[in-house]
Amino acid sequence: MILITGGAGFIGANFVLDWLNVVGEPVVNLDKLTYAGNRDNLASLNNDPRHIFVQGDIGDAALLAELLQTHRPRALLHFAAESHVDRSILGPDAFIRTNIEGTFQLLQAAKAYWSGLPAAEQSAFRFLHVSTDEVYGSLEAHEPPFSETTPYAPNSPYAASKASSDHLVRAYHHTYGLPTLTSNCSNNYGPYQFPEKLIPLMILNALRNKPLPVYGDGLNVRDWLYVGDHCAAIRRVLEAGQPGATYNIGGCNEKTNLDVIHTVCAILDQLRPMADGNHAALIQFIKDRPGHDRRYAIDAAKIERELGWKPRETFETGIRKTVSWYLENSAWVERVLSGDYQNWIQTNYTARP
Fold it and tell me: Which of 26, 59, 151, 210 is a Cys-bridge partner for 50, taking CB atoms 3.0 to 4.6 Å apart?
């Protein structure tokens, strides 16, 4: 048995589905079901006894203690997080509560549970913290990619909250001996991603002939990682990672935002052509967001060297799978496009000239 937090969100749900398909070990899935947590992501597991879903908050110490003592997991994988930079700029409070205070409560509960295990189970237990490359700050075009030893320099409330959680995880290993693992990943994309993020936002806006909003000049660079590759990397880190270690997980696919959007548009032109014109004509440049980091890039040499993982998908193969998934899952899309989503789009984009 493993316990997962945030397993109804984008990366967490993909991991649960991947885990049960590849490994088959039962999962207790704790998720608060905020706007980005979606039970529809896990609909295929509704009658699967290997999946136990619990709606709850990682800040609830009593609930955490109960789940750990009841289910006795051999590992705790921490995906739960507020994760959207734009939302953190407009309302950082939730990011502090979930990403810092929530991680603290989870570490406290894990430490208490782990301390009471028999020696052999203590040695085998793992606390795997899933984090982001944004903790490292921003790179100039000529600078080498982020490595595990790159100094932290977070530039948004989101990145700062994740950096804080990373430091807490590190401290609980070095101070208390809790066998932790930390992964810092680059930008994920793929099925089940809430459409506030760049790629699904562009796909769904383009299908509705709505403007495709591009911050600034569109030349901000990200390293794009297909979520299925990320899931495989996390499985490998859990299986063979060194306690106390950090592993950077990247897709080796640096692309500007504008390149990504043009690629999405070109695929849609093939799969869902417009009656008149092409989807790229919908691109609209808008005012940049505050403190927008210019470039992220991941050096994933350590995880390849030590654990033998590297991404299988190129950006070209992964993005085509992703666009096709959204085209084939219109019912999921319609249910996601709720009032909360529409309110967010209005708040974040309409006010930008």
Answer: 26
The length of the chain in residues reads 353
Per residue in 177-191, pLDDT tens?
A: 999 999 999 999 999
Q: Is 192 a catalytic residue?
A: no
Active-site choice (31, 57, 134, 166): 134
What domains can you pick out in the chain, each with its CATH number? 2-192+224-252+295-312 (3.40.50.720)
Convert the pLDDT of each residue in 238-285 to its tens digit: 999 999 999 999 999 999 999 999 999 999 999 999 988 999 999 999
Annotated catalytic residue within 31, 82, 133, 166: 133
Q: How far apart are CA 298 and CA 252, in angstroms?
A: 7
Q: Which of 181, 170, 162, 20 is nearest to 80 (CA)?
A: 162
Catalytic residue among 136, 158, 247, 296: 158
Return the ∠ at Cα 20 (arms to 14 and 21), rounded to 5°: 85
Q: What is the pTM of this model?
A: 0.94
| Residue 133 bears catalytic tag | yes
The answer to whether 297 and 256 are in contact (CB under 8 A) is: no
- Between 315-328 and 257-271, two packed helices, what is the crossing angle to 10 degrees? 50
Which residues, in sequence order, are bridge partners of residue 226?
189
